[in-house]
Amino acid sequence: MNTLAEVLHILPAAGAEAREPSARALREALARRLLGPPRDEGVAASEPAERRVLAIVDEALALDGDARDLTLDDLAACAGALESLVGREAALFFDRVFESSDIASTITALRAGRGTVARFVTAFRDLMLRRIVDDLLVSIERGPELVVRTATVPLSAEAERALGLPERRRALVDGASGGEVAALERLVWHLFSTGAAAEIATLPPQALARCDARVRVLAAYSAYEAARSAPGMEALEATLEEARGFALGRILRGEASLARGLKRPGAGFLERAVPGLHGLLGADPDRDREPVARVLGWFHRARVELALPPVLGRTERALAGLRRAVQLSNDAEIDAAARARVVANVHLLLARHLSAKGDEAGAARELDAVAAIDGHGAFGDAVQKERAMRAGAALPH
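The structure assignment produced for this chain is given below.
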């Protein structure tokens, strides 16, 4: 027992335990596991070690709004990692005890280096944060390249013919020629989902003005993509205001904002990009009523998230979003060409992602899946280029 007491009191009392912790601090600490794993005997908030932790939680609770919430989240993240760290430290300590059979000298050695270890933990944390910032800046500088590599690839004319797209499109165009609003809306959704958004700009503006606000958002986004101008962005913003709750619209607007920022990397990038990302990442595609909007929403959002620097921590969510887009594309209401376009692009994105991770076998399987859907045109070129890059990387230097 005396030995355990020595080990437990390696750190001197800091004085914080003299203050009575608040009930709220105890609740937060237990909810966030800031006092370690749950214990059968409960928590003795009167113990100095626990009171030191609770004093820090009270400090966090005294902060305002976002600072409080972020600090508490940060404490929880640290607790999870430190729990594992301390377990490893304990193993090292007792390994040394068993090797030397000299408990007193091992405790003395641990105490002697404790301050050095504590300073290293702080210094290492700062080093890793600095590297995250450096990696982010490098990723920003590569922004134009990322825009190109994540752009949606169109289906080839051969694939479109095999999927019967020309006939369906002619029928929709003929149906919309009578001036019926519902028929025009069906045509716009078809053109947008099958990669023919540029053709939306050829439709009569007066007729589009009578369409649902969501359809007008698609038209405004298509017009912006054609010219990439500030007035085009303003028109998209204004139209989106009339289509509140349209998740796909928010995602498209965010995508456009991010692309503008990535093409002009440097100072102020985050300030320009964050507002767009806020709308994009906060939108829930499953809330849109149209099946095609849900598919496109998940695809566009995940595509952007996968293009973000890995240090931003969106990769796993991006991969889940791509899987969701593929799953939803099986809906009977989704045009066969729209489904093929989305699924082939998902496989291409996954191939690039897996290759970047060093999983060349997985990347090759994804490229085979792309070629099986469309081995011609832009997809065929993309597959050949990716395979050539893989082969070049595999050659001995």
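Interim note for the steering committee: The radius of gyration is 28 Å. The first helix runs from residue 2 to 8.
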